[in-house]
Description:
The complex is a heterodimer of chains A (about 90) and B (about 525). Chain A has three helices and two strands. In chain A, about 85% of the residues lie in helices and about 5% in strands. Chain A has helices at about 5-40, 40-45, 55-90, and strands at about 45-50, 50. Chain A has one domain. Chain B has one domain (about 10-400): Sodium/glucose cotransporter (Up-down Bundle), CATH 1.20.1730.10. Classes of the chains: A mainly alpha (about 90), B mainly alpha (about 525). Chains A and B meet through helix 1, helix 2, strand 2 and helix 3 of A and helix 5, helix 9, helix 10, helix 12 and helix 21 of B.
Amino acid sequence: MSFSDDLRRLNEARWRVAGGLTIAMMVVYFGFIGLVAFNKPLLATLLRPGLSLGMLIGVLVIVWAWIVIWFYVRWANRDYDAGVAALRGSL
Amino acid sequence: MTSGLGDPNAVAITGFFLFIALSLGITYFAARRTRSAEHFYAAGRSVTALQNGLALAGDYMSAASFLGIAGLVALSGFDGLIYSIGFLVGWPIVMFLIAEPLRNLGRYTFSDVVAFRLRQVPVRVAAAAGSLAVVAFYLIAQMVGAGKLIQLLFGLPYELAVIIVGAVMLVYVLFGGMIATTWVQIVKAVLLLFGAFLLAILALARFGFNPLALFQAASDQYGAGVLGPGGLVSNPIEAFSLGLALMLGTAGLPHILMRFYTVPDARTARTSVSYATAFIGIFYLLTFILGFGAMVIVGQDAIRGVDAGGNMAALLLANAVGGPGFMGFISAVAFATILAVVAGLTLAGAAALSHDLWVHVVRGGTASEKEQLRVARISSALLGVLAIVLGIAFEGQNVAYMVGLAFAIAASANFPALLLSVFWRKFTTRAAQASMLTGTVASLLLIYLSPAIQVDVLGNDAAMFPLRNPGIVSIPLAFLVAVVVAVLWPEAEAEKGFADLERRVHLGATESS
Lengths: 91, 513
């Protein structure tokens, strides 16, 4: 296995994870914006006194941002950094 | 009810002078350690992940978001949440696509990354233009906010207030560089998070520590409409345009990107983003509580009575739940916030002027340490004066809206070229130049043609461009121009350099130098 093959593999893995998580964040966020733009009454639905569906979804979008970041950091700290260390070692 | 605003507030003035004294002390120690350009721009690359996380959060939690978003929520309820969320979701994008490659490829500015395998001079000129446009708009927002705040709190004339902010901030930047700016930012971020937390707790105490009881009280008083989307974002295209600009703008803000150079390696950059996102998310959830708290406890009419834009809602709430002393504390925190953000912006602008334009364009990449440091300081002084002039010239502009525009310019001018330079093998010098100039010019031009300038400022009946935020046109346009130019005029040299770039994205500079 050559250095350039390992680098290519690491590169592909990094952008696959990063790209996938970017899309996961964008879909959720623009889904929320889409509801704000096209279905205001749905977001105004009250789930309980003092809590609308829109507020719940809004808070969940923030929580989702935390989740995708947590997922990325876990992957990068374990798999990606190990790959980088292996590449450095093979130099 | 008297607001307590406008009369000199002893706690505010004491807190304000304490912060100035503390930050000048930090600057004194930082100045003794600032001996090279690496210290001045990048704090010697010795900032830890938690420190950088706090500093990033500090740069991001500007007075516009603290005062502006709390005010927006207080006056329009749910709609304020749209802004909070938009400001937060940019961070995962920064994390996944930008932070680590940036740290591994560049030295002081994001132009280092764009210019990595392209021809230096054209790229640096275009990138500096984009950076300076973003910095200028952001500075206007902060300086106007600072002037208004001090005017209201201390009864000082607006112009004098703007000059004081400009002068104090310049002392941090000139003498302490990035080390002082980072520590001022950390102190301020801790104070701001603590202040917002305390204020939210005091407000919630009136509702049995149950946020739902607070929201219920708001809906009893102002109608259930405050809990759902209202008229703030009326046009669907406008909603997407604003959302796109907020999400992608974060990854194009020069003062945020610059912070990734202050940490020792990519892994620290990564960890610092997760800290920053946690702090910023909590902060925006707190501003939501503060906004509704102000709406119920202070009342919308009382908030509008002090400032039509609602910018003083958080301070009025502090007065209502904690008395003048607590309001003084929160005011001093808000003031510290503005000082710190303005310092960070000035440093980023100075880096574009001195590192990109002077060192790489005028001097062809060779300048002694001594010269680099001198030019950086002269640039900072120039920008400090510019900040004061802009602050005075644009008195009365809506602060949160100006920040939204700065994000739109950043997302159009800087983000597309930065992303493509790291990802796309066939990206070229001409494409980078064309994309950055198109993004800058298109966003500025569309802002000028928008209802915000044509109708609100110039008093015309209609605007040529219907949207208030240009993002949905200018961002795709910058990408499109980049792709078309790169396909029509390929650049063999740039493509050859991509292998080296790819290697360094992952391995950093350590082994290749």
